[in-house]
Structures are given as C-alpha cells and as structure tokens.
What we know:
This protein has helices at residues 4-7, 10-21, 35-38, 41-49, 55-65, 89-96, 98-106, 125-143, 179-193, 201-219, 225-231, 241-248, 254-257, 261-266, 269-274; strands at 26-31, 69-71, 74-76, 110-114, 117-122, 153-155, 165-167, 175-177. The chain is of the alpha+beta class and 286 residues long. The two termini are 20 Å apart.
Amino acid sequence: MASARDARRISQWQRHKATFKEGHCWVVDLDLEKFFDRVSHYILMSQVAKRVSDRRVLKLIRSFLTAGVLENGLVGATDEGTPQSGPLSPLLSNLMLDDLDQELERRGLHFVRYADDCNVYVRSERTGQRVMTGLKSFLTGRLQLKVNESKSAAARPHTRKFLGFTFSDREQVKRCIAPKALARFKERIRELTQRTRGVSVAQLIGSLKRYLTGWRGYFGYCETPRVLQKLEELVTRGMNRNLAAQTAGSPHGAWRLSCSPALSKALSNRYFRSLGLPSVGPAPIN
Length: 286
C-alpha cells in the first residue's frame, strides 16, 4: 500500500468488517521486533533486485542503506536495518515483506498490512494461535525477522489496534480511534498549550493549526463521531465580571481551567476558528 491513509481507506476497512460478519472475528496481530533496525540488507537487496534491473538504482539504494547513523557527533556504519523516517523505508519494507503477503494469500487468509504492521483475521482463537506459530516460523526462516512476543497476539479485534484504529465490541461493528491514539492527542495538545512555552497567541494558533489539520485528516474518518464531537463542542461567548475574576485567580493549571465555564464562554471554539484554528469534527464519509 502506498501510504498509511491508503491502508485505512473506507473500502479497506469495510472489507474487514465484512470478514467479521463471515465469522472471522479473531485477529492475529503481528508486531515485528525492531523491524527497521534489523532488516537484512542481503535479503532486502535480493528482493529489490527481483524488480529492479538498473545497476545504478541498485547501487543508490545500497548506498542509502549503508550511509550510517550519526550518534554523539560520530557516523557509525550500518550493516542491517533501514533508516526510520527515510523516504524509501516504507517502500523497501513492502518489498521486503512481499513474500509474507504471498504466503498469506497462498493460505487463503484475510489480512491487511502496511509496512511492518500486519493483521490477519481468522474464525477462532485456536486457528489464530496456529496461524501465529506458522507465521513466526516463516518470518524467521525465510526473512530472518523476529516477531515481538510481548506486542503480538491472537485476540478479539476490539482489544487490538492497527494504524491508530480499532473496532467496537458491538453487534454493529464500527471503526474507532484507538484509546492510545486519543491519549496521545490529548497529551500533544497539553504540550502545545502549556503556559511555560512562552509563545504568542498567533504562534500557539499556528502550532495547533498544523497539528489539528494533520490529526483530523488522518482520524476524521472514524465511524464514532461522538468521540470527535466531545473534542469539538460549540458554545457561545459571554461571561460576567465575577466569573472572570474567579477564573483569573484560580490556582488550577491551564489544562483544568480549559474546561471551566468562563473559558468555555470567553474562548469558544467559534472564537478560535475566527483565528484560523481548524475543527477536529467528524469528516464526511464517502
């Protein structure tokens, strides 16, 4: 898949929801241990060479892999792994794991994968454990990759996450934002709005705008808009002098005060939107 967004497009997730209705209500959640740090250059380059015949391109890719890493001012050699956040790393990871895709297809399994994240949907926990054992053996033997035992499991889909999303534990299955993703969102907002940053309102709005635009662009397609609506409640402006004085003299921190009646009225979402701050409300589903 070309991007994480492609991996979680509505049509893809709808297909997985259909597998639940067919009885595939267990997921084999595979996490590859330190994947980008431990990829074998020999195996990876052999995979690339199957598709690329131009030696100049192959030499360039190998140079990318062996460029080294900067630690404490010194460049250290790299004989395995790919640079994390490098522009080629997602593409190379897909080439590296193409054999895994083919193996899953050969076994007739329902699965979705993006880079080193892979979910396989099966009908029972017992089948999931069997599939997990077989895939561990395949990944170790064929690709010299190790499965992270502590982060992998055969479990119910609502207890696992994939690319920041999970599924609801209800008869009508819905695509949800994973709890950890919501927690990271709230923590990032706390960091951006803390009083000790010492930035102007314009700078603060700029930082929030960039973060919220990206966050909503990714998570705005969840099927539980109530979660987003809780983050995006509209209220009217206006408060009296006494309430303003109480709020100004409050010993509480900025995060707690953000939920106070005074600030909810004086600094409403409407006010912030007038400054150019984007909404995080639900995105339309096509």
